[in-house]
Amino acid sequence: MSSDEEIEDVPEKAPSKSIALRMQKKMLGMTVKSKERVKGYIDETTSELLDHMYDFAKADTGDEKVAKKVIKDMIKILVKLGLLLSKNQFSGKELALLEEFRKKTKHGALTLVSYHEVAFTFDQEYLSGVMKESRDLLQQVIARHLTDKSKGRVDNVFSFYGDGDRLARFYNDPKHEELRGAMMTCLSKVLEENLL
């Protein structure tokens, strides 16, 4: 993917600004390849949560490559969203959608924690629905800013973690109980620190 493909619908009024943003995004793509470099872009609590999500993906699939890909996709999306926000690239409508996405994601996180804390409350269909709605909102936010490849990353992350069967295994399979506890403790911390 060339850096020229990074932003698809940028107005031509400020070509140097557009070029600079594309270069920053391209450089981020090149530097976000190692865990140590990622820590400069993502706070410690979120990094810990991502580690737990990686551990779950690896344990559930038994495939380290799949787990690495889904986490790498998530990190790239988080970093690119942060860059776009810091450079004030979103329109008023996109910011409203982003706020709706943030609320939906926070609701989903609270639901995940609640299902963990209150036995026999897990609702696979409901949680999968929340994940799909979150994905759709995020796709609307990034529609004019990121490439099809980045949009595919969003789909990959949400289809992986929003898969109903996978969610059922996460909540019902005893082999995930310890990891689920650690992940929910970390997710609670993310919520307390208002990082969503």
Explain what the structure shows.
With 196 residues, the chain is mostly helical. The protein has one domain: de novo design (two linked rop proteins) (Up-down Bundle), CATH 1.20.1440. It has helices at residues 15-31, 35-38, 44-61, 64-86, 92-117, 124-142, 148-161, 164-172, 177-192. The chain starts with 14 loop residues before the first helix and ends with a helix.
Keywords:
single chain; 196 residues; mainly alpha; de novo design (two linked rop proteins); 9 helices; 74% helix; 0% strand
Secondary-structure blueprint:
Layout: H1 15-31, H2 35-38, H3 44-61, H4 64-86, H5 92-117, H6 124-142, H7 148-161, H8 164-172, H9 177-192
Brief summary:
With 196 residues, the protein is mostly helical. 74% of the residues lie in helices and 0% in strands.
CATH fold-type name:
de novo design (two linked rop proteins)
Q: How many domains would you count in the coordinates?
A: 1
User: How would you describe the shape?
Assistant: globular
Rg value: 17 Å
State the CATH class: Mainly Alpha
Name of the CATH homologous superfamily: Tumor necrosis factor alpha-induced protein 8-like
Order of helices and strands: HHHHHHHHH
What is the number of helices? Answer: 9
Sheet/helix structural class = mainly alpha
As a percent range, the share of helical residues equals: over 70%
What percentage of the residues does DSSP assign to strands (E)? under 5%
Q: Would you report the number of β strands?
A: 0
Described by strand count, sense and barrel closure, the largest sheet is: none
- Judging by the overall fold, what is the CATH architecture? Up-down Bundle
Overall mean pLDDT stands at 85
Distance between the termini: 30 Å
Question: Poorly predicted ranges (pLDDT <50, ≥5 residues)?
Answer: 1-14
GO biological process, one term: regulation of apoptotic process
